[in-house]
Amino acid sequence: MTIKAANEECLARIQDGTAVWVDIRTARDVLPDLADRTVFHAGPPVTWKNMCGPMRGAIIGASMFEGWAKTADEAVAIAEQGQLKFHSGHDHHAIGPMSGIITPSMQVNVVRNDRFGIDTHSTLYMGIGKVLRHGAYDETVMQKLRWMNYELAPLLRRAVQQAGGIDIKSIVAQAVQMGDEMHNRNKASNVLLLTALAPHLVATGERSDVVRALQFIDQAGHFVLNLVMAGCKGILDAANGIPDATIVTAIARNGCETGIRVSGTGDRWFTAPAPMIEGVYFPGFGPADANPDLGDSSITETIGLGSMAMAGAPAVVEYVGGTPEFAVDTTMKMYEITAAEHKTFKLPSLRFRGTPLGIDIRKVVKTGITPVINTGIACKRAGVGQIGAGLTAVPMQCFERALEAFAAARTSTPV
Amino acid sequence: MTIKAANEECLARIQDGTAVWVDIRTARDVLPDLADRTVFHAGPPVTWKNMCGPMRGAIIGASMFEGWAKTADEAVAIAEQGQLKFHSGHDHHAIGPMSGIITPSMQVNVVRNDRFGIDTHSTLYMGIGKVLRHGAYDETVMQKLRWMNYELAPLLRRAVQQAGGIDIKSIVAQAVQMGDEMHNRNKASNVLLLTALAPHLVATGERSDVVRALQFIDQAGHFVLNLVMAGCKGILDAANGIPDATIVTAIARNGCETGIRVSGTGDRWFTAPAPMIEGVYFPGFGPADANPDLGDSSITETIGLGSMAMAGAPAVVEYVGGTPEFAVDTTMKMYEITAAEHKTFKLPSLRFRGTPLGIDIRKVVKTGITPVINTGIACKRAGVGQIGAGLTAVPMQCFERALEAFAAARTSTPV
What we know:
The structure is a homodimer. Chain A is of the alpha+beta class. Chain A has helices at about 5-15, 25-30, 55-65, 70-80, 140-160, 170-175, 185-205, 205-220, 225-240, 300, 315-320, 325-335, 360-365, 395-410; strands at about 20-25, 40, 85-90, 95, 105-115, 120-125, 165, 250-255, 255-260, 270-275, 280, 295, 340-345, 355-360, 370-380, 385-395. The radius of gyration of chain A is 20 Å and the shape is globular. The interface of A and B includes residues 203, 323 and 352 of A.
């Protein structure tokens, strides 16, 4: 196949993919590779030795949640002794923001790309601040985790089932026209999700539980994010593994390395050291406290959201820094490295132009422009949590390495 | 007082006003002038003889709802015989979109400007299409009206009271940053309202009633509008009646005439024939079916929303016509006739500049630019309902007459 034809097939699959929140399940029941003492994490594969503080913190919390350890010290000990197995969630239809830790007893969202028969899984969003995904694991975090897992999740499950599924792609399409870029600004999408869910929650839940759930989803602010992430991955996974396609199908960071996947080279990761983030810090924190770029949430940029859709979300600059003009400039720059425009996600401020879609590794290398990422900043010390938000970029090395590998695999035709 | 000082006082009162939805009450209990067989209507005062089709239609429906008439013919007869009294709602702390009909048995929202101790009242929003405010009164309309009045309203009342009031001004401030201009685009504000209301609905209502209420508010799309209108009026009424102030405090249309009020001349109306609307028609309708400009909803423009805030709501052009650039141009033009910028309603697309606030009759007359209005189009025949949406402008005559009267009253100092 020519690169052109391969990319067209790849892009068509991304455009046509669907994302419907169909269920919430216990992770071990839907993720067969998530055996006991197995941990899925964000980004490309990484060993305990190389893991960053927040990822270690989240694993400590998850180990206590699972009962594998009683204390943080015990959790560190079993990890150091090699008693835990670590896998990239990306290799197993799973995804999570920041450390992206998923262990067998956790409840996970099931988001379906029914056009291509792919289910993708993500944990439930816990809120901002001191939360597991940022490596916090004190008793308040553990209590919240247990409430979400054993009380909130069953309630949401009944509602989602009664609703016959909730169309996440449709919510994203509306929210992109309401100032969300879907990575750090999810204000519209979160209330749209709540609006879709509320009648079914009411119909299936106990009054006091429903009140608490509604208030939690509203106050968490970004509850929709983990569903959107699973939706993005399910759509992009359907477009992965097309020989000769040069479109990026995943961008993910484990806090130590940033990695990308390219459709033509399938599941192989092309990595480089994770960069730091330029951003706005919460009071009391600064760059010296910051962890390098972390998390799977850059799957939003991979599908034409996040920084790609920033022109439609000028208010996000209040959170990640910059000016409204910078937001427009960022999107405009991203059109230079993408192969198409999204036919469902449209930016009113750019005359309803589709968001930049399909990062082409050839264009990145040729222009020297790498994808921008809007992201949260985790404290590099385990146990602290989120300390800010800002902007970073995927290292050029990832694309150079990917292009080399792509060219090497494609001996017959010049790139 | 100098005009400058008077306008500053007027603008400060508008900026500082509040709008909290505190209650729902039966109209006769909170509107002492709304006696039996009395009807409040939109816009400046108008007689039955001069009333447009949709306003007559709404009065027919309201007369049957009140039991004053059994049939449409009977309703017309009692109106023609002078058995009904008509008052402009604006003169009685009441407001309504389109025909704006309020009769004694109707449930009305109570929206409080607690900074200045003013309660303003509006009917509950019925949805789009065939509805009372557009002059429709068939049995489906009457049934819906009864359900809203006797089932939905009491449910909402308990929720609003349990919430301790819902801050409408805060919802507007958020929604203006989410693509709403608050007159014809209320997508974000409506779901934000629903999000604020939902837990209290659940806590106080019966399950099946709550489900129905949540679905109705979501599907009605603009349920929030009537609350916003009451909020705008309550804030502007507090700024009315300041001698020497040249700021417009009301714009309202009765479908026959458009009228404005100016702070310095108090409750006096300055009117001109209501213009037609340039717009987008629903299938099957065209300009020949259209009624001239109608309704109190232009109170949103009066406070710096609607067309004034259009730069932040490019998606509204899909509804009222035009291009996203036109939306920005409209707001920019409105800065030329306003005296200030809103300190709470900010437009991300204009670098968080406040919306144009305080229409100054001197600037309108001097520049020849009159305020644009984003609005729905009613069918001129009673009983049909909404047939489109579009843009119009307040006639220049209103401002010329207001300025003449203002100057005449102010003999000592030149305008």
